[in-house]
């Protein structure tokens, strides 16, 4: 099933009702929880984002409109990508998470409700200002959430993961970005989609490299 064929009102075979994916979810949560306990033991800073993600994860799993992004989400959890990074990526398509991030960083939250009346191809040069502002705000959020009370152990693990598991994160980011565009009635080619997603993650990686961390 392609994203173009997906609409929130449809009822495709649910990930949560699939025995195979249910087992994958159990394994992902099991491994993610093990990593979460490890970070909580070393640094209390990581706990805030771990618990935030745990709460939102339940909401996302039971909300069928997010079925489409569960597989890449589970893959990121399975690879132990830090909770603050996963929360940021999800915030593009989850208004409650976006509002929470703005609250944590002390910035004003503006709900995003824009949608074109007719489907059209995404073009950065001509896209509506509201779409641009939402994307720019999302990109700014990653700098805030990564640097705000950041955990040394999370940053160290992120640096390793960007080397060993970057493809997993790229797939998740691309799916989220495409889902966002789809909800705005915009389409995008796979080439452009992955090019934009890769550029965004390159910026994130550079930001992470510049953070000072304590010896672990």
Radius of gyration: 17 Å
Broad structural category: mainly alpha
| Residue windows where pLDDT falls under 50 for at least 5 positions | 1-17
Strand content: under 5%
Can you give the mean pLDDT?
80
Q: How far is the N terminus from the C terminus?
A: 44 Å
User: Assembly type of the shown chains?
Assistant: single chain
Domains (count): 1
Q: What is the helix content?
A: 55-70%
Shape: globular
Could you give the topology of this structure?
Blueprint: H1 19-42, H2 45-62, H3 70-78, H4 83-90, H5 95-105, E1 120-121, H6 129-147, H7 152-164, H8 166-183, E2 186-187, H9 190-209
Parallel strand pairs: 1-2
Helix pairs in contact: 1-3, 2-4, 3-8, 4-6, 5-6, 6-9, 8-9
Overview of this protein structure:
The protein has one domain (13-209). It is 65% helix and 2% strand. It is globular. It has a two-stranded parallel sheet. The chain is built from 9 helices and 2 strands, in the order αααααβαααβα. The protein has 216 residues and is mainly alpha-helical.
TL;DR?
By secondary structure, the protein is mainly alpha-helical. The chain is built from 9 helices and 2 strands, in the order H-H-H-H-H-E-H-H-H-E-H.
Features of the shown structure:
2 strands; 65% helix; two-stranded parallel sheet; disordered N terminus; mainly alpha; 216 residues; 9 helices; globular
